[in-house]
Specification:
By secondary structure, this protein is an alpha/beta fold. It has helices spanning 4-15, 29-37, 48-57, 103-116, 130-138, 144-161, 181-191, 201-217; strands at 19-23, 40-45, 64-68, 83-87, 119-125, 164-177, 225-237. Helix 7 (181-191) crosses helix 8. The chain is globular. The structure holds S-adenosylmethionine. S-adenosylmethionine (SAM) binds next to helix 2 and strand 2.
């Protein structure tokens, strides 16, 4: 498995372009990285809250344009970007409902992506990432891993149908190191607070117990380091 640094080195040749588009900028974490490679970055998101957060986080960058725009209906000319970066975005229902899958919607968004760029880079947690297990603490009926798998299959299918080839594919990981078990547990509870917030102390303790069990089994509680596996893929349409 490669380090995040090595992943960006692999992706560099595709991201060093004149005009790049990022979908789902959220807090701007990946937008910053993209802006270090591309001359001009346009980044879209549907969330007004994230727009405020990203504006603040990216205020020192003069090559980033942030827009509130729906990925399903992008107001850009055909093939107006040299590359499109899509990070931790496509496995979700992008219509506003959190964490559900709608493969038809996804297909429409993929068609839109293809319309605006001949090079598309996907970076996202894998089917085996620890977050899939942790997610069950917040919604036991949800199979995050299955959703990622279905979504990846759809991406491969749509890319193939439209004449895009897989040029690059690899695995990396993100590491979050915590100072104390308490800090780690509070952070984990916060990650999916939009899905479920414990109703009382008893429920909170039970959720923390489940989180600890999952992390302990994965060997992550012992060293207070949450490691998430991430996959990356580059598709390109060659003429
Ligand atoms: C899971 S977050 C990923 C954020 C970031 N790219 C990362 O990897 O850390 C998904 C992002 O996509 C945005 N989003 C959801 N639906 C969207 C849509 N239809 N069009 C544009 N952005 C959307 C969300 O607001 C959110 O910021």
């Amino acid at each position: 498995m490669k380090s995040l640094q090595e992943m960006w080195e692999d992706l560099e040749e595709y991201l060093q372009v004149e005009n790049a588009l990022e979908q789902g900028f959220s807090n701007g974490k990946y937008t910053k990285v993209l802006a270090s490679f591309a001359k001009n970055v346009t980044a879209i998101d549907v969330s007004k809250e994230f727009m405020e957060i990203a504006k603040e986080n990216l205020k020192d960058y003069n090559n980033i344009r942030l827009l509130l725009m729906d990925a399903e209906h992008m107001q850009f000319e055909d093939k107006s970007f040299d590359v499109l970066l899509n990070t931790s975005f496509h496995e979700f229902d992008l219509s506003g409902a959190v964490y559900s899958i709608d493969l038809e919607l996804k297909r429409r968004i993929l068609q839109e992506m293809i319309r605006v760029s001949n090079t598309i880079v996907f970076v996202e947690p894998t089917e085996s990432a620890i977050t899939n297990e942790l997610f069950k603490v917040f919604n036991p009926n949800e199979n995050h891993s299955d959703r990622i798998q279905k979504s990846n299959e759809l991406i491969a299918e749509v890319m193939r149908e439209n004449g895009y080839s897989l040029l690059e594919s690899g695995l990396t990981f993100n590491e979050d190191q915590f100072e104390s078990q308490k800090e780690l547990e509070e952070e984990m509870l916060d990650w999916w607070a939009d899905i479920k917030v414990p109703a009382n102390l008893e429920e909170k303790e039970e959720m923390i117990h489940q989180i600890d069990e999952i992390l302990e089994k994965a060997g992550m509680l012992q060293n207070l380091k949450v490691v998430e596996d991430i996959g990356y893929k580059v598709y390109r349409k060659e003429f």
